[in-house]
Specification:
This protein has seven helices and seven strands. It is α+β, with helices and mostly antiparallel strands and 238 residues long.
């Protein structure tokens, strides 16, 4: 290949058209050697990070101040897998601008082969700070909602328990009342003395066995339903 001969890929890389696209996309783009040294960055990387091109290009990505140590370790592990041909999912890491502002970044990486230059790594960095803030808000809302549902469920559980206790208490009272009424009825029926129960008009509405034996009037023979005057008049007639 002659020195002045340029491949189509190289023409595209150096063309004004490619540069316009490279520098104006919304995501940050970084070209690296397979040893991790930065070859080129687009304008988005410079704008968001606040570092000049001279502070980035020529350095290994593990030396960039843009990323804290934890993020660089994660990126290095992912980069090693890419070199081995392992497909890796997008990596989310933290970055910090030169002004100290935190930036949540999602990194997509691939290995490409450029004619005449061999293989290079292309990393696309997407600012997901707003998305992470929204996710955090949704997480807090979900947690708050779950807590509210739990509190309401606990309240309903307590109310339900109290209701069951009240129902059980009412049943117990009703049963006790029934037993008490039966006991009173038994005591009334088999009392040694004669007893009558009268209404407000003075008419007998009930009587016990002793009353039947003493008066000689059976309840089924109209002993109940008459006033005491009836019995007195009956005896006088005799």
């Amino acid at each position: 290949m002659k020195d002045d001969e340029i491949t189509r890929d190289e023409q595209l890389t150096s063309s004004d058209e490619f540069k316009a696209i490279f520098d104006n996309v919304r995501d940050g783009i970084v070209l690296l050697t397979l040893t991790g040294r930065v070859l080129k960055v687009n304008q988005r990387i410079i704008e968001v990070g606040g570092y000049s091109e001279d502070e980035i290009v020529g350095r290994r990505f593990t030396q960039l101040k843009l990323f804290p140590l934890k993020s660089r370790v994660q990126m290095a592990a992912r980069f090693s897998k890419e070199l081995m041909g392992v497909k890796t999912p997008p990596l989310e890491v933290e970055a910090y601008s030169k002004a100290g502002e935190k930036i949540d970044v999602e990194i997509h990486g691939s290995i490409f082969k450029i004619k005449g230059k061999g293989k290079v790594s292309v990393a696309i960095l997407r600012d997901i700070s707003e998305r992470k803030k929204l996710e955090e808000k949704l997480k807090k809302y979900s947690t708050s909602l779950e807590q509210e549902v739990k509190e309401r469920t606990d309240e309903l559980s307590i109310a339900n328990k109290k209701l069951h206790q009240q129902i059980s208490e009412h049943k117990r009272v009703a049963e006790d009342l029934k037993n008490s009424e039966e006991q009173q009825k038994t005591l009334f029926e088999f009392a040694p003395d004669g007893y009558y129960i009268s209404d407000l008009k003075g008419n007998f509405v009930d009587g016990n066995k002793a009353a039947e034996e003493i008066t000689g009037y059976k309840r089924k023979d109209n002993g109940v339903g008459y006033s005491p005057r009836y019995y007195c008049a009956e005896k006088a007639r005799k």
